[in-house]
Structure formats: structure tokens, C-alpha cells
Design goal:
The protein is an all-alpha fold. 76% of the residues lie in helices and 0% in strands. The protein has a domain of 94 residues. InterPro entries: TPR-like_helical_dom_sf.
């Protein structure tokens, strides 16, 4: 136990502090330390702290002193802390903007520190500046969500009026409802979002959660219906993002089913975005191209093959074969042949090239194989391949092009894969 005489001397020395603001705060801090030391003198120190505030001339300094005293009263478990906070608040009410809000924000920060969340919420709601108020209320909402008090978090959300704080807060609540599998409540919050960026963020959270928790397909469809019912400006963007997220997490069958609810243009946009997202996942690409409806297949296949031809990689051979097997479109077959030839799958490329009947396109298909064989140094096989084009004009043209490229190769020059461009020029001449 600390010596009482020493305590009296310390309190006496504190009375010598000339500035009443610092003297009041010092008494409060001493009171808290004495409380920790289990000395009954702590109440005396707090009483002196309150009394000293009467000598503070500057109203702002007095408010700040009262807030600090209330902080230490609360830490010392003295019920009077609430009254002192309220006394400070009543003084703040007389101050003009922006000082009014600055002082309330400071007081709410102290209240949050000492975990008087309800009091902090009460005073935060008295802030006049909507932006500042929304910012402080967002902090409070996040704390209530972490503590599991979702009901109170909903009440706070109603008072957040400004963006992006409203959307950030709504997303926090939405995630909380998803974790609790309260999907109806999550849908209501989702419907209330009004900012495109945060709607997209919400879509990601929904897709990830529903997939990882293996939610029923009916729950997925409820979110889809909500996305479709949103404003024209956001509905398809929102739905597209939701389907891309679900598709990239493996729900290809579900995405295919939902796409039927969308207009044709929106379907293609969604599928193309999904392709870009899953480009590194060959298995998902294969599944997608195997399950595409006939009406969506051609534009999506063209898009995918164009992407794959930018940087041909043998790991995509199977998905390209799936495309070739599913279509009779000869322009797509030429792209299939070109890809397979570029990755060295010559026999597979020849298989699809033989299906091309248009003389111009057939010359491009076999020409692509021949050029890539040339690049590998297989001149004999390249010529044999070129001779597969039986049309007199296009066959002659292709053989001539190939012979020139053989000489280019002999001069240690790179063989250009420019047959499509050259064929276009030749066709215009004819």
C-alpha cells in the first residue's frame, strides 16, 4: 500500500500547476493511478479535477478537459463519467461549425477507446456535417458488426447518408448476413446499394461466399433475380459481374442456365468477360466451350481463338479441339487449324483442315500448316501439305508463296506467317 503522506504531497504538488487546463487533467490522471494502486484517495483527486475546470477561461479548453476527465473516470469505473461527458456535450452544442463537429468527433473517439459504444453512437448522431458524420458512423457500424450486434448496425446504416461511406457500411453488413446465412437480409442490403463500384464489390462477396459455403442453387437464383430487377443502368453490369464471379469459381452449368434470361448481346459480353477471367484455367475453358448453346458458340469461339492465337500455348490444345469438333463454320476451323499448327500439332491441324471446303479458306488452313512446318525445317512435308489445295488458282498461289518462303528460309531469314494478309490482297486483285 502506498504511503498516504506521499499521496498528500503529490496532490499538493499538483495544485501548484499554474495552468488550470493541465492541472485538471493531471488531477484526473493521478486519480486513475491511485485507483490502480487501490488507494481510497483516488476520489479526492477526481473531485479536484472537476473543481479545477471552473477556473479554465477558454470554453474549448474546458470541453477538452472535461472529456479527458471523463475518460479517466470511466477507466476508474466511476459512474459519474457519463454525466461529465454529457456536460461537455452540452457546452459543445453552443459552438459554431466546424468546431462543433471536431469536438464531438474527438469525444466519440475517446468513447470508442473506452468501449462506451452506445454513448459514442448517441453523440455521433448529433454531428452536423453529413460527410464527417457518415465517416464516424461507419467506424461505429464496423465495431458493432464485429461484436455481432447486427440490429444496432442496421440502425446506424440508416443514418449514414453520404458515399462511399454508405456503401462501405452496407457491404460490411451484407458480409455479416452472408456469414450468418441470412440470405434474405443480405438481398435487402444488396438492393439498397447505389454505387456501381460497391455493387460490384458486393457481387464478388456474394459469389465467393455462396460458392465456398455450397449454398443451394435457389439462393444463387434469388440474387440473380435481384440483379435483373435493379435499375437499367446497373442491372446487366451487376448480373454480368455476379455470373463472371460464379463461373470463375466453377459454376459453369449454373451460369449457362442463367444466361438464358439475358438479351443476346449481354450474353456474349458476359461469356467473353468470363473467358478472360478463366483464361488460365484450361479445365474451366473446356467445360465452358463444351456446354455453350449453339447461338452463343460462334461469337464466343471466335473471341477465344483470337485470344489464344495472341500467344499460342500447347496446354490449350484440348479446348481448341473441342471448338473444332463442335463447329462447321469454316472461318473458325481456319483459326483452329492455325492454332494447332503453331503449337506443333500438325496431324490434328490436318484433320480439321480437310473439313474446310471453301477454296480461299482451305488455302489459308493448309497454308498455315505448311508455313509452320517450314519454320521447323520440314520442307518436304510443307510442300505436300500445300498441294492439298486442289483449286487451280488458290493452289497455285499457295505453292508460289511457299516456294518464296523456302528461299527466305535459305537466306537465314525468319519465315513470316502473313498468308492471311497476302491472300486478302490476292483476292482483291481477282
Amino acid at each position: 500500500m502506498i504511503n498516504k503522506k506521499l499521496i498528500d504531497e503529490i496532490l499538493e504538488l499538483a495544485s501548484v500547476i499554474r495552468d488550470p487546463y493541465f492541472r485538471a487533467i493531471s488531477y484526473a490522471r493521478l486519480g486513475y493511478e491511485l485507483f490502480l494502486l487501490k488507494s481510497g484517495e483516488y476520489k479526492k483527486a477526481f473531485t479536484k479535477a472537476i473543481e479545477t475546470t471552473k477556473y479554465i477561461d477558454d470554453p474549448v479548453s474546458m470541453v477538452r478537459a472535461l472529456i479527458e476527465i471523463a475518460r479517466y473516470l470511466e477507466k476508474a469505473k466511476i459512474p459519474a463519467s457519463g454525466k461529465v461527458f454529457h456536460q461537455a456535450f452540452e457546452m459543445i452544442q453552443k459552438f459554431p461549425d466546424p468546431l462543433h463537429d471536431e469536438l464531438i468527433e474527438g469525444m466519440t473517439s475517446v468513447l470508442l477507446e473506452i468501449r462506451r459504444y452506445d454513448d459514442a453512437l448517441f453523440y455521433a448522431n448529433e454531428m452536423r456535417d453529413k460527410t464527417k458524420k457518415s465517416e464516424v458512423l461507419l467506424k461505429l457500424l464496423t465495431l458493432y458488426v464485429k461484436r455481432g450486434n447486427i440490429r444496432k448496425a442496421h440502425l446506424i446504416l440508416k443514418n449514414i447518408t453520404e458515399e462511399p461511406w454508405y456503401s462501405i457500411a452496407a457491404l460490411e453488413l451484407l458480409k455479416a448476413h452472408l456469414k450468418r446465412e441470412e440470405f434474405g437480409s443480405a438481398i435487402k442490403i444488396f438492393q439498397g446499394l447505389r454505387n456501381r463500384h460497391w455493387i460490384n464489390e458486393a457481387v464478388k462477396e456474394i459469389a465467393i461466399h455462396l460458392k465456398s459455403h455450397k449454398a443451394p442453387k435457389a439462393t444463387f437464383e434469388k440474387f440473380v433475380d435481384v440483379a435483373l430487377s435493379m435499375s437499367d443502368e446497373l442491372s446487366f453490369d451487376t448480373l454480368r459481374n455476379l455470373l463472371v464471379e460464379l463461373g470463375s469459381s466453377g459454376e459453369i452449368d449454373f451460369v449457362m442456365r442463367i444466361l438464358r434470361k439475358m438479351p443476346p448481346d449481354e450474353r456474349i459480353k458476359t461469356l467473353n468477360e468470363l473467358l478472360v477471367r478463366i483464361m488460365e484455367n484450361e479445365k474451366l475453358l473446356e467445360e465452358l466451350m463444351s456446354n455453350l448453346d449453339k447461338e452463343n458458340f460462334i461469337p464466343v469461339a471466335k473471341f477465344l481463338l483470337t485470344k489464344l492465337l495472341e500467344k499460342p500455348d500447347k496446354s490449350y490444345t484440348k479446348v481448341v479441339e473441342i471448338i473444332g469438333a463442335r463447329t462447321g463454320n469454316e472461318r473458325i476451323l481456319v483459326k483452329v487449324v492455325t492454332f494447332l499448327a503453331k503449337v506443333g500439332e500438325y496431324d490434328k491441324a490436318l484433320h480439321f483442315a480437310h473439313r474446310v471446303t471453301d477454296n480461299h479458306l482451305r488455302s489459308l488452313a493448309f497454308g498455315s500448316i505448311a508455313v509452320n512446318l517450314l519454320k521447323k525445317g520440314d520442307i518436304d512435308r510443307a510442300i505436300d501439305t500445300a498441294l492439298e489445295v486442289k483449286d487451280p488458282k488458290w493452289g497455285s498461289w499457295l505453292l508460289g508463296e511457299l516456294l518464296v518462303k523456302i528461299l527466305e528460309l535459305a537466306r537465314d531469314r525468319d519465315v513470316k506467317d502473313d498468308l492471311e494478309m497476302r491472300a486478302k490482297e490476292q483476292r482483291e486483285l481477282w
